[in-house]
Structures are given as structure tokens and as C-alpha cells.
Write a structure and sequence with these properties.
Length: 230
Amino acid sequence: MIRVILTDIEGTTSSISFVHDVLFPYAAEHLPEFIRKHWDSPEVSEQLDGVAKESGADREDAGALIEALQGWIREDRKATSLKALQGMVWEQGYQQGELNGHIYEDAAQYLQHWHDRGLRLYVYSSGSAKAQKLIFGFTTSGDFTPFFSGYFDTRIGGKREPEAYRNILEELGVEGATVLFLSDVEAELVAAEAAGMKTAWLIRDGDLPETERFVARDFAEVDAALLRKR
Ligand SMILES: CSCCC(=O)C(=O)COP(=O)(O)O
Ligand SMILES: [Mg+2]
């Protein structure tokens, strides 16, 4: 029986376009000033160590580090250091009212519904845990953070690696068969299934794929097919 819902964000609870056309450009625009301003802060410094290590850029060269980060944003690299820095920059944007998180109406409705029915809800995204709390804390439909019991990011492992899902199960102390993972990326579902989780493939737009896998257009279809008989 499903007792835990683990959900992806981009393409699942929230639109790909919000992440790529609003959040990523915001980070690209504000990162240079943010890094120079917070160069000596331990929180930023720790992430810049990671950028220098992964990119090979000179740790003391702010311009080279910023250039590496801008390249990673363009190629949508899921580097943990970039994701942590993006979260810090977005925090300013949300707090200043320049950003509001997108959440699909059906996701908003069923996250609340599943929480109220006693399911435990968790997020697993490549965006940092801070960024996850922000997108759900500052949505145009209100604050959804009270519905979530926890947040996992790439520090637990990459989203296409079965090991990451095993680590999540261990941390939650539950069996795979009690967890339903929701994502729009098939490779992530394959990895979650290898760890024993149940999955639902969210295809919000375009043609449905020919597949044996459970596919849903929205969270209402997930609820009707997989959760209503609980
Ligand atoms: C937490 S909102 C920003 C999401 C993000 O930075 C990203 O790369 C999308 O990753 P996901 O694993 O949610 O597809
Ligand atoms: Mg996704």
C-alpha cells in the first residue's frame, strides 16, 4: 500500500517553462553581483570551492568562476554547487516579490488532499532543498510547505541513479513498495523502480508514449488509478 509520495518538481508539480524561462534567467542575471557581494561568506565560499574543483577554474578568480556557472546554467548542468548558489539567489527574488513559484492547479489540489488523507509527502529535485522550499513556499496559490515532511536534493545522489532512491528509502525507514515516485523523466522512474519504488510518469503536454509504464496527464489521474483504493 502507498504511504509516501515522493515528487519531482520541474515538469511534474511545476512547469518546465517556469524553471527554464523565469528561474534560470533570474539566476544568470543576479549571480555575478551576488557572488562578488558574498565572496567572503562561508556559505557561498563553500560552494565556490565546489565550482572551482568541478570546473578547473582558479578559485581566486571571481570572473572565471562566474563564467563556469553561467555555462552550467546554459547547459542545465545539475551540479550541486550551482544548485546551492541558485537557491541563495532565488531566495532574494522570492523575498523581494520578484519571483512567485509556479504550481499546476491539479498538483496544488492533490498535494493538499493527499496530505489531509494521511500520506507523507516528500520532494526530490535537482534544485537545492532551499530552492524547493522557496518554490513551494511562495507559489501564486499560497504556501505549500506545510504539506511536505521533507526535501531531498542531489546531495543524496543523482536522480538517474538507483543508489539515490535507496538512500532516500533508508533515510525514510520505509520499504520501496510503499513509496510512489512522480516524475516527467523516464530515466528517473527507471532508477526509482530499481530501488523498489512504485512510479507514475507525468506527461503534461504532447503525445503519450507507447509504454507499459503507468502514465498520467495530471495528479487527478494518479489519484484515481493508484491512490483512491487506499
Ligand atoms: C527547486 S526549483 C528549481 C529546479 C531546478 O533547479 C532544476 O534543475 C529542476 O530539477 P528537477 O529535478 O526538479 O527536474
Ligand atoms: Mg522533472
